[in-house]
Amino acid sequence: MSHVDLMAGPPPTHLPVDPASAELTGSVEPVDVVRRHPESPLAWATLAAKAADEGLDPVTVYAYSRVGYHRSLDLLRRNGWKGHGPVPWEHEPNRGFLSALALLALSAKAIGETAEWERCSEFLRDSSPTAYDELLGGA
User: Fold this and answer.
1) Around Cβ 91, how many Cβ atoms within 10 Å?
2) Residues whose CB is less than 8 angstroms from the CB of residue 80 and which lie 6 or more positions away in sequence, other chains included
3) Where do the H-state alpha helices sit in 57-110?
4) Between the CA of residue 101 and those of 5, 6, 7, 23, what are the distances in Å?
5) Number of other CB atoms surrounding residue 50 within 10 Å
6) Which of 132, 16, 34, 136 is nearest to 81 (CA)?
7) What is the pLDDT of residue 26?
8) CA–CA distance, 72 with 65 (Å, rounded to integer)
9) Cβ 45 vs Cβ 100: under 8 Å
10) Which residues are within 8 A (CB) of 124 and not within 5 positions of it... i.e. 6 or more apart?
């Protein structure tokens, strides 16, 4: 008889490889990848990151990252996630979700939406402490 640890949390969620990841190279515009893969959290996160890097309005970054975040939630649920539990940064296909969540937190902070900043940054920390340190550690 095997022993089940009733105190253990849910198992880590490992998302499948994002089909858009192969297309997100330096020579391809993220907006074009989003047009081909609108379901891709990574494509939306990359588009949001590019908008932030270019100094676009934080509302634009917020909008792009929110779409990536919601696409991520759909993907997480389809892959067994029950609304909580680890989503490790170390598993590269999870990085689209984690990046979109971090960008959503940062852009919420930039537009003065403090409750959203706090909720998203806490969600990121709970999902992956490593991602939190990598993406928000200095924020």
Assistant:
1) 15
2) 13
3) 58-78, 95-110
4) 30, 30, 28, 21
5) 15
6) 16
7) 76
8) 10
9) yes
10) 98, 101, 102, 105, 131, 132, 135, 136
Is the CB of residue 124 less than 8 Å from the CB of residue 108?
A: no
Please tell me the total number of residues recorded for the chain in this structure: 139
Decide: helix, strand or coil at residue 33.
Answer: helix
Six-digit token pair at 126?
């709970």
Distance CA 26, CA 6 (A): 47
Cβ burial, residue 110 (10 Å; 0-12/13-18/19+): middle
Rounded to the nearest integer, the mean pLDDT of the chain is 94
- Please name the residue that has the structure tokens 């939406």: 113
DSSP string, 28-39: S-HHHHHHH-TT
Nearest-angstrom CA–CA distance, 37 and 43? 7
pLDDT in tens, 39-97: 999 999 999 999 999 999 999 999 999 999 999 999 999 999 999 999 999 999 999 99
pLDDT of residue 6: 56
Are 100 and 65 in contact by the 8 Å Cβ rule? The answer is: yes
In the block, tokens 């588009």 appear at 47
